[in-house]
Amino acid sequence: MADAKKLAWKWLGVALILVLVSAIGASIVQTSGGRVEIKDLRWETASGDLMSALLFIPPNASEDNPAPGIVTSHGWYNNREMQDLNYVEWARRGYVVMSIDMYGHGHSDAVTPAEWYVAGTGMYDAVKLMADFPYVDTDKIGVTGHSNGARAANLSIREDNMAEEPLIDSVLLVANDAMYTTSENEPLYTGIIAPDAREPYTNRYGTRDVGIIAAQFDEFFFRTVQADGTQTLPRDFITTEYAQSFLNFGSDPVEVRESGVFYTNRVNGELALRVIYTPWEIHPWNHFSMKSAAQGIEYWEESFGAPNPIPKSNQIWIFKAMFNFIGLVGWVIFIVAFAKVLLFTPAFASLRKDQEPKTMVLNRNGKLWFWIGSAVVAVIAAVSYLNLGAWTRANRPAFLPQAPTYFIGVWSTVVGVSLIVLLVLSYYLYSRKNGYDPKERGIAIALMPLIKTVALAVTVLASAFALVFAVDYFFKADFRFWVLTVRTFSPDKIGIALRYAPLFLLYYIPMSVATNSFNQFKLGDKEWYNTAVAAGFTGLAPGIMIILQYVTFMSTGDVFFKGISNIYGIWLFPIVVIIPVGAIVSRKLYKLTGNPYLGGIIWGLLVPMIMASNTLTQI
Prior knowledge:
Elements lengths: L1 H29 L6 E8 L5 E8 L9 E7 L10 H9 L3 E6 L21 H10 L3 E11 L1 H15 L7 E5 L34 E5 L27 H7 L15 E5 L2 E8 L12 H14 L13 H26 L21 H24 L1 H6 L8 H29 L15 H29 L3 E3 L2 E3 L5 H27 L8 H12 L1 H17 L10 H27 L2 H17 L7
Parallel strand pairs: 3-4, 3-5, 5-6, 6-7, 7-9
Antiparallel strand pairs: 1-2, 2-4, 8-9, 10-11
Helix pairs in contact: 1-7, 2-6, 2-7, 7-11, 7-15, 8-10, 8-14, 10-12, 11-16, 12-15, 12-16, 13-15, 14-15, 15-16
């Protein structure tokens, strides 16, 4: 046990070093070595709501030498830091950049669905603030965003078109369509507009420059309904009338124009440009892509001219992503190591075992229960994931204000309850007959140890998130990799996460019990073989669904699962990581405690907290 204590302190030190390296490295990159000033903004907007944004001010921007300003936004179910590849690259090239939390996201106020499109979901309110900064060139203010962030840009153009003094001079739409027609309902989802219902093409952007980044494998946009009712594929978007009309400045296409080429035309006496990029990417990869980053750099260089020109191939955001990932790894290690350190304190020492739980030796029937049972749970996980979407949309209680968290929570509960049933069957039909002792395996637990287990889990999580807030406060950094994000949150998110927690605990506790109390058996020559297999099975269903969805998409141009919204396929990316890591964490803690509940409670509370702080909240 003395060695275990020393090892726990060693790994805690490693975790804190990784977190510190991550925070310092990310800060250095996003400030261009301290030259770019970062401000964390909170203000009450003209719409009467609190808005949150990160403001990046390069050293060249001053009242005597104002710089172009760009307001950028994440998409639905994300937050302001998701635009890090853009604000890092644009700020170092001399643009003033404001990355917003749209209303309902991050630290900005939640609003009702009826208010989602007010002031461009907050983007136009941010544009008004940008225009007031004395160091911003008000003749060069641009808006951009990813997915619904691009929709926010379109909605801001509508607001700007009605303003006495328009503020926006350039627009870059990433992963969403432009406004193509005279329809009063623009921006439209072109993939549902029948050919006979299509209104005349027009130029809704006037003299502004406009660009589109349209991924060839975008899951949602860049589709056209054809005469036979089928849709064109997003990889063929550049050939559609919508795209060609856009490149011809809103007129009926008069010539075939190409992707990646800037086209210019005089509009009301002013020279305006249009361009469409078609990178070989999927929708969420646009905000984690050197290709899309290069296209954004090129667009603003062409539209505004960079105050500090740097070749588009010279990108450093990827180093920030690397440092953020190091911090994410360090943070997970911290959770395990800190829990182990606390187990050597008087308050929690009674939860520690003097010896590791014995690795079970299963006979042929026991192994069959493991392999077949794990496969059955994976099938249930896949089938339920594909069929719960409509039910959760129709049956979400009003006191649960986040649709994605509810869907994942209900799915987790269904899989967890199925797992409990299989564990009970396994116990009565196999384990009990073969000398299995629930008390020895930690399933039978007294009330006081259970209370201490909950207290330890809460203490560990409070400390882990305190680390997140400290890194944000001192370095304006967080822990993330692509769509997997651990960030700060406003106090209301704690209450929201706790409302969803029972749904997640009903999965992660049984998962930990299964992984450790039932499935810790000898498999091969190394102990970690069993850990890897057990953890791998927890992510098997999401992994297979991702492979089916995207191998089919890349090879045929259309997705595999056509009966559900493609957003469910995108949500699988973080899930396929979070669940297996949770299984590994639970195994690490089980070996020191013989307690399968500790890891399950930690992960069952951690996951809804992460989700609640990273998605759309509506009222």
